[in-house]
Amino acid sequence: MTKLPRWADVVLVPLICLVIAFVFCGILIAAIGQSPLQAIWIMLEGSFGSTNGLGYTLFYATNFIFTGLAVSIAFQASLFNIGGEGQATLGGLGVTLACLMVPWPHWSLALLGSIVAGAAFGAAWGFLPAWLQAKRGSHIVITTMMFNFIAYALMNYVLVNMLRPLGSMDPASARFDKVVNLPKLGDILGLVGIPFSNKNPANISFLIAVALAVGVWALMWHTRLGYALRAFGKQEKAALYAGIDPVRITIYALLLSGGISGLMAVNAVQGGAHRLVLNSVEGAGFIGIAVALMGRNHPFGIVVASILFGFLYEGGSQLAMGTTIPREVITVLQALVILFTGALPYMVQKPLEKLFAKRGGK
Amino acid sequence: MSLMKHLLGASAALALSAVAALAEPAIIYDLGGKNDKSFNEAAFNGAEKWAKETGGTYKELEMQNEAQREQALRQLAEAGANPIVMTGFAFGDVLNTVAPDYPDTKFAIIDMVVDQPNVKSVVFTEEQGSYLAGVMAGMASKTNTVGFIGGMDIPLIRRFGCGYAQGVKSVKPDAKVILNMTGTDPSAWNNPVKGAEIAKSQQSQGADVIYAAAGGTGVGVLQAAADMNILSIGVDSNQNYMHPGQVLTSMVKRVDNAVYEAFKEGADLKPGVNVMDLKAGGVDVAMDDNNAKLVTADMSAAVTAAADKIKSGDLKVHDYMSDNTCPAGTF
Amino acid sequence: MAAQALGGRQATAAPYAIELRGISKSFGPVQANRDINIAVPRGTIHGIIGENGAGKSTLMSILYGFYKADAGEIIINGQPTAIPDSQSAIRAGIGMVFQHFKLVQNFTVLENVILGAEDGALLQSSLVRARAELEALSKEYDLDVHPDAVIEDLSVGHQQRVEILKALYRQAEILILDEPTGVLTPEEADHLFRILAGLKEKGRTIILITHKLREIMETTDNVSVMRRGTMVDTVRTSETSPEALAELMVGRKVLLEVEKRPATPGREVLKVENLTVRTEGVDRLKGVSFAIRAGEILGIAGVAGNGQSQLLEALGGIAAASGRITMNGVELPLKGHKANGQSRRAAGIAHVPEDRQTLGLIMDFTAWENVGFGYHNAPEYQQNWLFMDNAALKADTVKKMATFDVRPPILTLAAKSFSGGNQQKIVVAREIERNPDLLLVGQPTRGVDIGAIEFIHKQIVALRDAGKAVLLVSVELDEIMSLSDRILVMFDGKIMGERDPETTNERELGLLMAGMTESKGA
Lengths: 362, 331, 522
What we know:
Chain B contains eleven helices and twelve strands. Chain B is an alpha/beta fold. Chain B has two domains: 127 residues, Rossmann fold (3-Layer(aba) Sandwich), CATH 3.40.50.2300; 156 residues, 3-Layer(aba) Sandwich (Rossmann fold), CATH 3.40.50.2300.
């Protein structure tokens, strides 16, 4: 079978998807009587035009890098973890407990503590469905989804009954001590002389996320565990032949996946909100699925796709503030881009393959 | 080339509109959205009322996610909007950190106390209004069973439910009050289907009056109650009109007045805590043509009596949030 | 003279069913077909033979409209015909039976046959007409398939006949079969060839793609030999010999018989006692006992599906079993998480599985990743406790690919992009080069071309001569007879008997394979 050249598969296909998505968005915006070009300009300008806007874009992107990597690791093992939402929620709880319970002397130590706690809580939330799948055959898609609901309920209970400061009616934890606040990206870049606004929540977690992407890449392609994960994901029966234990691999994959989902809270909770609110994840766990699909399950693709989705989020905010486009339409616009870039690359791939085959055949 | 022109033109237009935005008041609606027929819509009505009276314009924004809160506040403040009104307690924490950065901008927050020199905090005594609704429900019930459906299970909503239960028990000490919540996540504010389901379940347990304090979810509760031919009680806005003759009353929370006044005061907004209680007209039960037939003279008298006692301080309705317990029912 | 006429570029109105003229096709830098000319007379069986990767399948795909040729023309019944897609091929009277059947598993034979050829809006009328026609065809060609049988209940051989029926139902005058016997038992293969002979008698033209010389010699009228994308020669089958064809295919002299010295069995390496494998409530392997000594090849003969697969899987640590196996005097676990491929390898057992595409290789992995498959924990492939030494693995792969002549020797090519023979070479290289005490080999030459078969057989014999034990499972009797030092015959999960390859014959083994134990034969 003819295949697309790699560059076309990796660059051209997503790009075409994006263009198609924007065309549809443009039609939609025009249909409600607004100017599509102005809307796109507002989105671009708002999310990349200033370091402040860029900061927000990167802040959202950081969440998506974590959840996207989480989904992709499980996906490499052919496990569809759609529980990123719940795992990140629990990660938030872990980070919050670490930040509130321990009198950290310095943010760096607090960061280490919250990384450990966030990952541990997220991993624990991934472990149960994995164990159920490996030992009891309960399908992981169902269990991880159910665990999302359990996580919501648990979070509500914990926030309302345990973490909510007395007298507050906001179902949210107390604000963390300023000591544990993570350095803003603006401060870090300032150290090396790059001017970058620090009025946005972008923080050191972005760098952690990028480093993690490199780590995941190394794990998947340069370690025995990664090798076993991928082999198991490709051909489960063959993995047995090679002596790869399905139970262990399933559990390892979900522990890693859940742990990385949980790390999202370091950015969202410790880095951004400085407290735990209900629904601190806000769908990032699900966006992670689209990010992983669009990034072709490759860590670097995921970083790029995350920035695109960060742009969508921030651009959406800017649209809401800069135009009178209703919030619902903005959600539809975001959904359109996710649909075209995440779910429909095959629609573009086939005709493109034909085109290349024709050109190659001449 | 012409595309470039277009884009430049667009950005210029944007810049212009930003300049024009100077000194406009602004309102930010919480996640429920401005068309929730309830809390946020009441705020919207207040803003509209101001706009109509003064002919002024205002900026409005519907939240999409948590991280936007701070961004929206800062962006509006930097664009010169003044005052900036926000609906919902969820803004409290963020406002606490943002307000000091913009000392020349005035902020107003509803449903939450934020102690900053440039913030006006508007809070309502929902337990008092709910108590009156409870009195009416207790008297209207023939089955001796009434229901309460909250939105998301949070203390604020329990405050509604607890006040309501106290009101019911004050007229029928042996009445059964079924207290349910729609859910534990924010989608519970906007799930009319589930609201209708819970209403049906409460009806099957004997409830013939159901009070919905659930934002957009309440729309489903009111609809289901009307379909089952039992009574319902609306919340926040006056919802009596939605099913005339089938909504017993609405526990109105004058969010509209709060917004209207904040807008009217403009840049001279007076900071501090503003408790909108029964006495101040902040909460009440709605009486209009739509529910006139349902409200008997006895009921009317009982409500007036209870209201008077509350206003005079003779009757103190227990506030759930003061100690997280409710003497009149369990959630 | 006839041979020249067949291969020649003649424009006469000869009674050819199909002529291909100057067909060329390349995929990127790879030229799969180069200026191919064939002419197939009507009413003959025409063999196309060549090693895997010689371009046979590409050529047939062009003929069936899957690929478009870069150059050349196709002439059907004297008419130049364009075949842009498979629908046009069907209209032109071409039917194709693929190696991997394209049947809907939970449909009946009848439903499968009319699928895509429903002739009216109402399914029912099509069904009635089709049933009559199907029964007629089935009887006429001795196909022995019932229209209402559900595909998944049918044997592989019957499924193949459904494919033939499908083509006949669509009025195929020219039937192309791609490696049709690769999945069949000897009896099923014989039946197939009887069917093909019947079709030929009725005037249909058959193109048989295979790499098995015996089939060519026994069934075809003419044979075309392909090598590396070119048509080397077309000859009358009656005027050639297997040796000559093999030489044409491979491009050098090939030894069809395995040369080996008599075995010198040593100590007992593996002892199997009362081994039983139960899957889905059925005993597939029923209390088998035997032993293998160092320096011998023990062949397991049998029709596919009589427990050989389970035997290999139990020994290889893949399937849970009960009983007892002892390797070099140490008992090995048969169930639980300790019974796995890793622990077997640690015990000195290497395993070339029957199904290399689902067990032996990860098809999407590169060649070098596959060379590490099953040995990814081996210390020589580790850099440190954390990272694998991919460079070492790649270097090892380069070496193994060179030793085993894997083509193309491209490290980063995915396993699925190699031909069957080269895939098998990767597996055999990986397993044999470990110098195991015991090598389990299942169907070592299934779907493997002739050059590679010779090579793989040599490697197996060499391992034996190095004093190692080999357990060989194959459904190819020729292979069992020529390689084994002892033969066990399996039927219905049990061992029917042991025979000496020097003194037994195919007929005797055939009877045992069918479960008949009585006479010891001639």
